[in-house]
Amino acid sequence: MNGFIATTPPAAEDNFVIDDFFPALSLADFRCQYRLDGSYTTDNLKRALTDAAVDVTDDLSTWKLAYETDGHHTLAACPARQINGKSRLVILFEQAVFCFAKANLIDTFRDVDTTRKLGDSRAEDHELSSDYWRREGRAAIHKLLGRPTVESVLL
């Protein structure tokens, strides 16, 4: 008897590339940090990230142009504090895109149970969750732009 156990190797996930200015995002990091199990395919993740990246980069287009005009051709090259060896701006950008993508996944992949009475309350929970992730994404964009967030106004 040998010790061979057949397993399927995990699918290699690519980086998600946006453009030359914004950093590539790791699908594996998105899956891990936002607790996305294997029921979401790589294509599902890429679709959600695409929609989120369009929204976030549209919101940051004027901001990006100002940095490029100043000679900073990547987000990582823009002057910012480093946190654990990573630019604060890169961290906030990733957070914004990942939060919006998580909201997109929640809205797109509701449980089949949502047609029953019990499912109705579960659907409301999902809506609250996607709203939560959109708020978090919006807060990350505001921090990137140097705008106050609700938390900073309350403090």
What key phrases describe this protein's structure?
57% helix; mainly alpha; 4 strands; 155 residues; two-stranded antiparallel sheet
Topology:
Layout: E1 15-16, E2 25-26, H1 27-33, H2 42-59, H3 61-69, E3 82-83, E4 86-87, H4 88-108, H5 117-145, H6 150-154
Antiparallel strand pairs: 1-2, 3-4
How would you sum up this structure in a few lines?
The protein has helices at about 25-35, 40-60, 60-70, 90-110, 115-145, 150-155; strands at about 15, 25, 80-85, 85. With about 160 residues, it is mostly helical.
Please give a structural write-up.
- This protein has 155 residues and is mostly helical.
- It has one domain.
- The protein has six helices and four strands; from the N terminus they run ββαααββααα.
- Helix 2 packs across helix 4 and helix 4 packs antiparallel against helix 5.
- The longest helix has 29 residues.
- 21% of the residues are buried.
Largest sheet: 2 strands, antiparallel
Number of strands: 4
Radius of gyration: 19 Å
Class by alpha and beta content: mainly alpha
Shape estimate: globular
- What's the domain count? 1
SSE string, helices as H and strands as E: EEHHHEEHHH
Into which percent range does the helicity of residues fall? 55-70%
Strand content: 5-15%
Global mean pLDDT: 83
List the uncertain runs: 6-10, 112-116
